[in-house]
Structures are given as C-alpha cells and as structure tokens.
Automatic annotation (TrEMBL):
Catalyzes the ATP-dependent amidation of deamido-NAD to form NAD. Uses L-glutamine as a nitrogen source. GO terms for cellular component: cytoplasm. ATP binds at residues 301-308, 408. InterPro entries: C-N_Hydrolase, C-N_Hydrolase_sf, Gln-dep_NAD_synthase, NAD/GMP_synthase, NAD_synthase, Rossmann-like_a/b/a_fold. It comes from Advenella kashmirensis (strain DSM 17095 / LMG 22695 / WT001) (Tetrathiobacter kashmirensis). L-glutamine binds at residues 121, 177, 183. Its EC number is 6.3.5.1. The keyword Disulfide bond does not apply. This is Glutamine-dependent NAD(+) synthetase. The keyword Repressor does not apply. One of its GO terms (molecular function) is NAD+ synthase activity. It catalyses: deamido-NAD(+) + L-glutamine + ATP + H2O = L-glutamate + AMP + diphosphate + NAD(+) + H(+).
C-alpha cells in the first residue's frame, strides 16, 4: 500500500493591500495545517496581496513591499517543517507583472506557477495589470503528484491538460471567484469538464469575504477524478478543509474552524433556502465593507418601509444592534403607521432609535425659495427636498459620530432611476444595490422565519409609490408596482 498524503485548504478572508494582516492569517493557517500533520497547505488566489489589488499593482512601492513581505513569509513558513505551502502572490520582473503561486517547502521555493488565462470581463480587469504565463507546474509528495493552476485557468481546458501531461494526479486550484447565485454549480461543472475529464481530481480553494463591491463566497470543494464531490466547505465562513490521498483515492477529513467569527456552520446544510445563502452574502459584504474601512458604527434612515427595514436587519446581523442608530424623520405627510412600524422594528432589534421632525426645516426651505418659485405648482421638487433634508441630517450624524450611512435603495430603484440624488441615495454602502425589489420581500420573509424581527405589516403593506417623485412615465410606474409587489396594483399608498 502506498503511503498517504494529506492536504489542508484554507478558505480565508484576506484584505486588499493589508500585507501584514494577510501574512499573519497565512501563517496562522500554516500553523494549523502543520499541527494537524498535513503535507500540503493550499491557499486562495493572491492570498498575500488580497484580490483584486487593482491599481496598487501600478505602484512600485507596493510591489517592493509585497516582495519584502513574501521573503519574510517564506522564512517564517520554513519553521513549519515538511509542510508544502502553495501560496498566491504577485511576481514582478522585467518580463512583466504576473499573478503567481509558489510552492514553499522548508525555506525553499520548489517552483512558481504563472497564471495563464487572465479574466478581462465583468468585474475582472487582469489584462490591465498582468502578463500571462505559459508553463505548468507540478510537484510530488511521496508518490502523489500535484499540479498547480489559478482560478480562470480551469475555465479553459489547456492549463489543466498541460498539468496532466506533466504528470499531475490532483490539481490544486487557487481561486478568487466572486459570488453569484448558482455560481457554485457552474464552478463544479467547469471543474468536472476541464479537470476531471482530463483524468485528475481537484482541490478548489476559494477566497471568502467582502472586498468593496465584491463578495467572495468561499464554498471550496474537493472533487475526485470521477467528478464526485469528496468534501466541501460552507459558504461565507472562514474554514480549513482537509483531505487524505491514499492509493490515489481522495478521502475527506473533518474540516476545522478558522478566524474569529464561527457563527456559520462549516458544513453545507441540506436543502438550505436560496435566501439563506443570499442573506449570508449580504451580511458578510456589509460587515467586511465596514470593518475593512474602519467603520464600527452605522446610521440608517428608518422609514417604516421594507427597504430600510431589511437594511437594518442585515446591519444588525453584520455589526450588532449596539453599533446601529436608526433615525425616523417624519414629515407632515408621514403616516402614523410608518412611525409605529419604525419604532416597533427598532424596539424588536434593540437598536438606538431617534426621531427628528423635518417639517420646520422643510418650511424654511420653502420660505427661502418662495420669492423665486412664485405660484408654480408643487411637484417632485418639494418631495425631493424632503429626501435631501433627510440625507443632510444622516450625513451630519455620520460626520459627528463616525458612523457610516447605509443607503437603503435596491437594485430595481437604482436600475430605473427611482431614487433622489443627494437624498435617499446618500450614504457610503448600499447593501441592497444588487437585490431587486421582489427579492427584498423574499429576504424579509425568510429572515422572519429565523426570528420575527420585521413587523409583518412592513412586509404586507403595499410599497409607498409616488409617481411625482420620478421621471418615469405613469405607465412605467404602474408596471413597476405590479412587478415589485403583485398584490398592489390599485395605486393605493
Ligand atoms: N471608505 C468609505 N466608504 C464609504 N463612505 C465613506 C468612507 N469613508 C468615509 N465615508 C463617508 O464619508 C463621510 C465623510 O465625507 P464628508 O462628509 O464629505 O466629509 P469630509 O471627509 O470631512 O470631507 C470634506 C473635506 O473636504 C474639505 N473641503 C470640502 C469642500 C470644499 C473645500 C475647499 O477647501 O474648498 C474643502 C473639508 O474641509 C473637509 O476636510 C463619512 O462621514 C462617511 O459617511
Ligand atoms: N420618514 C422617514 N424617516 C426616515 N427615513 C426615511 C423616511 N422616509 C424616507 N426615508 C429614507 O429614505 C429611503 C427611501 O424612502 P422612500 O420613501 O422613497 O421609500 P422606499 O424607497 O420604498 O424605501 P422604504 O421601503 O425603506 O420606505 C428610506 O429607505 C429611508 O432610508
Ligand atoms: N479570479 C479569477 O480568475 C476569477 C474568474 C472566474 N471565471 C470566476 O469567477 O470564478
């Protein structure tokens, strides 16, 4: 019987540009893998710089700092005897800048792989920064040979085929693959087609965490050469997965927790609702945007409507009720039930809640404008003015308390222009910017199945749609109402 080889793969949350912090997490993962007696540790794509480093790569100083951090890391990793660490980093030479991965063992570099397929579509812009590599890299631990590739490489056949031809039995894939609904199924299909069909098993290690407008889901997996899933990690949590390779067979070992937040179970839950996964994506995206930009607190305009209710619920799950401030800013047009529902929601979540009446400010504006407006009829102008007064108040609270304003607009509103510039668009991060209104309702209902934090009337009440507020035609407004809330087609408020 052949001696077995064991591999750990660390789904960790790195931060673009934070070389010291990223290196510390890499060392922590290596210590864990070494302590467990593993032979190989696989890390995500560009684990040292974080993904995507974008224009930092155009700064000579950043490249020099990264090189120094890499050197120092290589020395530290030498302390974990006999552990092969497959680490993603940048290589900069007179031939170009490369998205690379090196295999470090006992202080030596066994080889460096250069990414061959550079994605340059959608959110990816790698051709702006990187030059493509051409050669496979393999290394052997006892009798088992591993190939190394990086993310987009496995979306094509050639890099995996070259690794197989160079003798690889199992392909190690370093990834920074952002989340989209159902992306996991696509990744599995791609790896089955390009890696398993070439005769190899695959260990797919993905980055996890929010980075500006992207959220990486992790959801790393191991698949054998027949295309069967051997083990997979849950999405939206840091974790270390582990396998053993024995007589060419890949066998799962129990996964290990990693990092401070261990609220998400490591293993995939059977039959989980799609909303549960999307909710975790929104919570992680919000938590990491705030955390990585040094905001401990947030402020939200709470209207008693569905969007601000869902944003508040996401924010509570992300940073805790004690770090949130909800502000209701009623005008003379605000219905009592809106105020009651906002109060009720804040109370259920134990969030600090304040009311600031905006009528006096609104009247002052109207008075100041009266000589110019004359007897022109009221229209969107006055409505937008209210939204802008609220925006100014929220930004004042933001400046004074160093709390970021969470914008409540959803994707349907942003796509159709149904929002007020310098008004309800105010703020630094919009958790719902990629969530259409129909999904906002589904998410609210799903979150309430976990604990009833959103007053039911906020979910069932037809959206407060005002056609005067938008530049959409009346027909478009009615269509939108049907589209967003099928139950509300009579135009009532
Ligand atoms: N990473 C981030 N992501 C998302 N949002 C972020 C953020 N960092 C701050 N924010 C938000 O931005 C807010 C801070 O921005 P902001 O409220 O604009 O305020 P502030 O950062 O103070 O920016 C204004 C600066 O420009 C100066 N200024 C302004 C206008 C004219 C002149 C002149 O000399 O002519 C000078 C002014 O003296 C002040 O120093 C934060 O409270 C927070 O809400
Ligand atoms: N009375 C209010 N008090 C506090 N914030 C408000 C108030 N009215 C509006 N806002 C803020 O402006 C955003 C947009 O308000 P709008 O009345 O256009 O409703 P909406 O787009 O349907 O959002 P929501 O579903 O949260 O009411 C709200 O999500 C909220 O953050
Ligand atoms: N970083 C990458 O190369 C990512 C590209 C890839 N197609 C993905 O989203 O999974």
């Amino acid at each position: 019987m052949e001696p077995s080889v064991s591999v750990a793969f660390a789904q960790i949350n790195q931060k673009v540009g934070d070389l010291a912090g990223n290196a510390a997490r890499i060392v922590q993962a290596a210590a864990l893998a070494h302590e467990q007696g593993h032979d190989v540790l696989l890390l995500p794509e560009l684990a040292l710089t974080g993904y995507a480093p974008e224009d930092l790569l155009l700064r000579c100083q950043f490249l020099a700092d990264q090189q120094a951090a890499l050197q120092s890391l290589q020395e530290t990793l030498a302390g974990f005897q006999d552990l092969h660490v497959v680490l993603g980093h940048v290589v900069s030479t007179d031939k170009g800048t490369f998205n690379a991965a090196s295999v470090f063992l006992n202080g030596d570099n066994l080889g460096t792989y250069l990414k061959q397929e550079l994605p340059n579509y959608s959110v990816f812009d790698e051709k702006r920064y990187f030059t493509a590599g051409r050669k496979p890299l393999v290394f052997t631990v006892r009798n088992h040979t591993f190939g190394v590739t990086i993310c987009e490489d496995v979306w094509f056949a050639s890099a995996a085929t070259a690794a197989r031809q160079a003798g690889a039995d199992t392909l190690l894939i370093l990834n920074a693959s952002p989340y989209m609904v159902r992306k996991h199924e696509t990744r599995l299909a791609v790896v089955r087609r390009n890696v398993c069909d070439a005769g190899m098993g695959a260990i797919y290690c993905n980055l996890v965490g929010g980075q500006d407008e992207l959220v990486f889901d992790g959801h790393s997996f191991v698949i054998d050469r027949q295309g069967n899933i051997v083990t997979e990690l849950n999405s939206f949590c840091e974790a270390v997965g582990r396998i053993q390779v024995s007589s060419g067979q890949l066998q799962a070992l129990p996964s290990l927790p990693f990092g401070a937040d261990q609220s998400v179970p490591l293993q995939i839950q059977e039959n989980e609702a799609a909303e549960a996964e999307i909710w975790r994506a929104l919570v992680m995206g919000t938590r990491d945007y705030l955390g990585k930009n040094f905001f401990g607190k947030a402020v939200i305009g709470l209207s008693g409507g569905i969007d601000s209710a869902v944003v508040l619920a996401i924010a509570v799950d992300a940073i805790g009720a004690e770090n949130l401030h909800a502000v209701m800013m009623p005008s003379r047009f605000t219905a009592d039930i809106s105020v009651n529902d906002a109060q009720d929601m804040a109370q259920r979540l134990a969030v600090r809640y304040d009311e600031i009446a905006i009528s006096p400010m609104f009247n002052s504006y109207l008075e100041a404008l009266a000589p110019i407006f004359g007897d022109l009829p009221q229209d969107t102008t006055e409505e937008n003015l209210q939204a802008r007064i609220r925006g100014a108040l929220l930004m004042a609270l933001s400046n004074k308390f160093n709390a970021i304003v969470l914008t409540t607009g959803n994707k349907s509103e942003l796509a159709t222009g149904y929002c007020t510039l310098y008004g309800d668009m105010v703020g630094g991060y919009a958790p719902l910017k990629d969530i259409p209104k129909t999904l906002v309702y589904r998410l609210a209902s799903w979150r309430n199945t976990q604990s009833a934090i959103i007053p039911e009337r906020i979910i069932t009440r037809p959206p407060q749609l005002s056609c005067a507020k938008t530049r959409l035609t009346r027909t478009a407004c009615l269509n939108m109402r049907c589209w967003t809330h099928p139950g509300a087609s009579d135009g009532t408020q």
